[in-house]
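Need a sequence for this fold. Nothing fancy.
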């Protein structure tokens, strides 16, 4: 079982943008899978005010060593000035699934 699997979260302004970002990350073998979840309601502090937005969340599975390249690519193509790009460790999971993540990134 791989020990460096991560879940990368990226919020986007639209399904179209999320699909575009997911497709590029998949094409470049930076991620093995992307779930695109529309209907996210976000509340956040921006420029000294509390803002609200309807967003789309990408949940992407990958390995930690790919994160720097994902961060660079998403920042290059994302519409936000400061996009959310965070990685959370996958501390446990099915051996078969985690191995599939690793194999699909080769």
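Here you go.
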């Amino acid at each position: 079982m791989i020990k460096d699997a991560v879940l990368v979260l990226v919020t986007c302004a639209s399904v179209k943008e999320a699909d575009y970002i997911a497709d590029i990350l998949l094409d470049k073998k930076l991620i093995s899978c992307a779930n695109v979840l529309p209907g996210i309601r976000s509340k956040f502090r921006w420029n000294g005010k509390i803002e609200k937005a309807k967003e789309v969340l990408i949940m992407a599975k990958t390995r930690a060593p790919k994160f720097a390249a994902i961060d660079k690519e998403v920042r290059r193509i994302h519409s936000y000035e400061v996009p959310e790009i965070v990685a959370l460790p996958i501390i446990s999971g099915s051996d078969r699934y985690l191995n599939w993540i690793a194999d699909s990134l080769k």
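For context: The chain has a mean pLDDT of 97.
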